[in-house]
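re: ur question from the group chat, yeah i did fold both. here u go
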Amino acid sequence: MKLTTPFTILNRTFNEIDLIRDVMKKRKLATERLHDDYRKMFKNKEHPTIVNGYV
């Protein structure tokens, strides 16, 4: 039988907080993922420049 002491309760709570913190760090919003994808797509391409209204 496992003893339930304040220390075991605190330890369990801290482990849960750590798991939640890790998930929040790894999670990205859909728009952030979209921006990252666009950055990867256009990373090696030259961007068109606009001169006198023409591309």
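okk and heres the other one u asked abt
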Amino acid sequence: MGETSTHTKIASIHVLDELNRELEKLKPFFGKSMVANIKPNIHEKISNIFKRNKRRDKYTPTRQQLITFYLNSTNLGQLWYILDALINTFMALLFIFATTYVDESNSQVPIIVQEIDCTFAWILLFLFLPRGYIAPNFRKFVFSDFFVVSLLTIISPLMIARNRILDPTYYEKTLMAAGYYVYTYPLRFYRLKYIFGQIFKSTRNPFKISIATQKAIESIATVTTVIMAITALTYTIVYQQRITDEEQVMSFGDVLFYTSVSSITGLTSDVVPNTLFTRGVAIFIMFLGIIWMPPKMSEVLSVIEKRNPLPKSYKPEPHQKHVLVIGDLNLGSLVEFLREFFSQDHGQQIVNTKVVLMSENEPDSCVQALLNDPSYKTSVMFMLGSPVSPKSLRKAQIEKASSIFILSSKNVTAKSEDDYRKVMIAMSVKRYLLGVDAKVNIYAQTLLPETSLYLERITDHVICIPELRLGILTQGVSVPGFSSLIQALVTSIPRNMEKQLKKIVKNDPHFYWIEEYISAIGQEIYQTKFSPFFRGMKFKDVAKYIYSNFNSILISVKPKKSFYESSCNISSCRHILTNPATYVFKGDEIGYLISTNSTATDEIEKIPVECTSFRESSSYVEPGDISPLIPKIKLNTGE
């Protein structure tokens, strides 16, 4: 037993030594480390296609099916068509170039031109033959128009070169030394119609152009190639129908003008339709102009009209901020959002702020009319993009945005599905911001209260519309007027509208309370930062100073997070402290005011530090001399 184990170990060591020696031999080829190439390259893919399987069943794909599938699923098939189109285009242009050598005294072309044409024909032949192999139905392919036109386009230059060698005297007396094969030249223009159609019908084209542009190019190419084919045929027939050799030979450009313009518009041309063929061409072109071309041109114009002019990226202007709005972008939501966002009561901070609306779908006609409104045309833009796509978020530059708003549809029936989509959008936005190490405030709307639980950790602020509405109604039952107070504080009313309302009720003594109510709805909540001037002062003193100097009421502050970690005098760890009388300011807080003056926030933030100390300030008020924050209003009793 022990002897057998010893022999096994010796054999294993021997095998390992052999493997090590083989690996040493392979080191020069692979370097210091060898990495397995799991993804095969293009050569391996093609070689695997041509390997024959010994065992096949009726459901095993054939080699023809594998090649066809590979060409259709990769860009190689489109590159094949593009190369075919290039060679075909060169042959068509070579024919137009050859017509420049033909005049009244000469019908020949240089031999080098035919040799180049023959070379192109050989290349096109090698590009065309494999199409018969991969055709699903070879019999149908052979009897198709494309096969016949391609065969004549390829064979004619080869036969012309062959016959010119066998009988040069005969071909010296014919047009372009082509004999009867000259009538096949127009087919190379017609063949381009099919090739361009295959290129621009595919969504996998390598040109990176939109589908609308592809459709427009395809329609234009169809009209152009048909006109050029008719022009080439007309040019050949007109030359052959000359009565004498001294008769003038029309150039290709003159015939092109005749076929494309004169026969439709009635303009004069050097080509006079005095023969049966030219008259037939004129009638045929008129038929194309009346029946066939209008639908094609209408299709081109409609595609160009529907081309998407909306930008797909945001490029900020100098000294400009922006906010991103995603989610539900219907007319009702946008009208309320934009009216509130661009209210004049918000001060100068909105002047250089641009609202970027991003959606996967194009805006409808109502939203487009709103965007064209002069009030929003320069301050609001709509860009196409998916909020769950990192590429679209990068183009929107959300890492530089001031805020991000995720709106919900208030009238949607499938509330759960809409909220789930908002959760996915918020997760995508948050993940992108974490990836670029950016901090941007995210505000989200939800339709169901349970959705707020998912978004609390993702977004900075979550508002559940039904929950907020029911909460305000509940508080309104306990405290009458509470809902009106909240509505007035969170709704912006322009100053000019407030003046107009006061003017209406000013002369009526029975509506004195309405004038007071109008003054109240002009009060709004503003957010402000504090100047270092307030550092070391208590909240109650700061509130007195702000009320005395700016006629504004300071109701709460939001300290930095470090305050909650070090302070023990506040029992509740809320982010916002409401009326903390003994709180000492550090200068980095954010305050919330009730005021009618939108510029008060900028003035409070810019109070110079070196003006005076607080107690030496002329605006300092002793505790006994304080007037009430809410002034007494003299009621008009009508006496």
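fwiw on the second one: The chain has three domains: 69-305, 321-478, 523-625. The longest strand covers residues 321-327. idk if thats what u expected
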